[in-house]
Write a structure and sequence with these properties.
Layout (H helix, E strand, L loop, with lengths): L11 H9 L4 H8 L6 H7 L5 H13 L3 E5 L7 E5 L1 H4 L2 H11 L13 H11 L9 E7 L7 E6 L4 E4 L8 E5 L1 H7 L5 H6 L3 E4 L1 H10 L34
Parallel strand pairs: 3-6
Antiparallel strand pairs: 1-2, 3-4, 4-5, 6-7
Keywords: DNA-binding, Transcription, Transcription regulation
InterPro entries: ArsR-like_HTH (IPR011991), HTH_HxlR (IPR002577), WH-like_DNA-bd_sf (IPR036388), WH_DNA-bd_sf (IPR036390)
Protein name: Transcriptional regulator
């Protein structure tokens, strides 16, 4: 990062912000937590970031050692970005920041939720029941095409989420990002299906997943004059791309 944009302080917080404090930097990190992505994948997940801004952030994060770039092995020809081992150390910071921000009132512009953000909600807030058997699910967010296909492995200690779906899942949930987010914390599978989602395989595996994703309630100390945000994360809506931010 150019010196004139740095804080020029030895404090660890300032040094950290020198690395990831630029606009879009931490959201790039968020989008790489579940695995590597192509530039076009990152554009889809960050639709209001201009290509130049995204390229700048990737170059800066790569130069700082947070992100690396590699070419996929044959037959793949695409180049992907991924977090370095040091970059992965940002995960608890990113998750803690998101949980802390649940105490702030949401604005009218804050509508869009990326697919990986929705799936990170599962990995972060899944509250397992000790003694329950493991289960595997394939989740297809059909509003996002191939980028919306995930594998979820439920265990007695948590939920593992990846872009690689299991070959023989216990259940397959085909839905939309908005419907998935709305269903967290609920056991109304009939309502989910009535809204257009489909479930094949073991419906109890889907019910177990949705019921166990408990997004923390908002903190009591919301900013003065604002209303408490809803407990659930808001569903995904089409972003307004008329004002791309560079």
């Amino acid at each position: 990062m150019p010196a004139q944009r740095g804080y020029r302080q030895a404090c660890g917080i300032a040094r950290g912000l020198d690395i990831v404090g630029e606009r879009w930097s931490l959201l790039v990190v968020r989008e790489l937590l579940l695995g590597p992505k192509r530039f076009t994948d990152l554009q889809q997940a960050l639709p209001t970031a201009s290509p130049n801004a995204l390229s700048d952030r990737l170059r800066e994060l790569s130069g700082a050692g947070v992100v690396s770039r590699r070419q996929l092995s044959p037959p793949g020809v695409a180049r992907v970005y991924e977090l370095t081992p040091w970059g992965r150390g940002l995960e608890p910071i990113v998750i803690a920041l998101g949980t802390w921000a649940l105490g702030a009132a949401r604005t009218a512009e804050q509508q869009f939720v990326s697919a990986d953000s929705a799936m990170l909600t599962i990995r972060t807030y899944f509250d397992p029941t000790p003694g329950q058997p493991a289960a595997t699910l394939r989740i297809e967010l059909d509003d996002l095409g191939p980028a919306g296909i995930f594998g979820v492995h439920l265990t007695s200690t948590g939920a593992k989420v990846s872009h690689e779906p299991p070959p023989e899942p216990d259940a397959v949930l085909t839905t939309t990002t908005d419907a998935l987010l709305t269903a967290f914390g609920d056991n109304d599978l009939d309502g989910l299906v009535a809204a257009g989602s489909t479930i094949t395989g073991d419906p109890e595996a889907v019910r177990r997943l949705l019921m166990a994703v408990n997004v923390p309630a908002p903190v009591d100390q919301c900013p003065s004059g604002t209303s408490r945000p809803e407990q659930r994360i808001i569903g995904r809506q089409s972003p307004d791309t008329s004002n791309s931010d560079s």
